# Entry
Amino acid sequence: MEYPGNLFVIAAPSGAGKSTLVKALLELDAHLMVSVSHTTRAPRGQELNGREYHFIGEPAFRAKIAAGDFFEWAEVHGNLYGTSRAAIEDRIAGGQDVVLEIDWQGALQIKRLFPQAVLIFILPPSWDELAQRLNRRGEDEPAVIAQRLANARIEVSKARHFDYVIINALFETALFDLKTVVHSQRLKYVSQQRNRSAVFAALDLIPSD
Ligand SMILES: Nc1ncnc2c1ncn2[C@@H]1O[C@H](COP(=O)(O)OP(=O)(O)OP(=O)(O)O)[C@@H](O)[C@H]1O
Ligand SMILES: Nc1nc2c(ncn2[C@@H]2O[C@H](COP(=O)(O)O)[C@@H](O)[C@H]2O)c(=O)[nH]1
# Structure
C-alpha cells in the first residue's frame, strides 16, 4: 500500500498563534508542506503574494468558486478565503503530508469531504492574552482587531468539533503538542502495515529528531 499523505487542518481565533506555530513546525519537519490559500483580503505589511496568500480580487475569487477550483472556501472577518483543490489533492495522492491553516467553517467542510483529515484547534490561554497578541502584532487597525476578537467567541465554541485542542500558552509546549499529533498520525499508519518490509518503508517517513 502506498503511503497516502495526511491532511492536518489547523484552526484558531485570529491572534492565537497558529501561523507562528505552523511556521516553526515546518522548519522542523521536511515531510510537511503548507497549502497557500487564496484571499480577497489586502496584504499586511510584510506579506508577499504567493507566499502568505495568493491575493486576488473578489470577481476573480467568485469566478474560481464557480469553476469549482476550491476544495473549501469561506467568508471570514468580512473577506473571502479558499483552499485550491489542485494544491492539495495531487499532493496527498502523491504521499505528501499537507497542513491547512484555515478557519473553522473550512475545517468542517474538509472533514465532511475527507473524513481522514486530522482537525486541530489552537486556543489562546485567555481572552486577555488573545487581545494582547493581536495588539502587540500591530498589523491590524483597532476596528479590525475588535471584529476579530468578537468573532473569536464564536470560533472558540466550534473547538468541540475538532479532533485535538492545543493551548498555546507557552510556545515551546504548544509546538511540542503539535509535533506529537503529527507524529502519532504517522505512527498509526506504521502500525497498520501488515509485513516487516512495509513497516520499515513506512518508518522512513518519520523524522527521527
Ligand atoms: N505562545 C505565544 N506566546 C506569546 N506570543 C505568541 C505566542 N504564539 C504566538 N505569539 C504571537 O502572537 C501574535 C499572533 O500570532 P499569529 O500571527 O501566529 O496568530 P494567528 O493565529 O496566525 O492569527 P491570524 O489568524 O490573524 O493570522 C504574533 O505576534 C506571535 O508572535
Ligand atoms: N476557510 C478558510 N479560511 C482561511 C483560509 N486561509 C486562511 N483562512 C483563515 O482566515 C482567518 C483570517 O486570516 P488572516 O490571515 O486574515 O488573519 C484565519 O482564521 C485563517 O486561518 C482558507 O483557505 N480557507
Q: What stands out?
A: Residues 7-35+96-202 form a domain with the Rossmann fold fold (CATH 3.40.50.300).
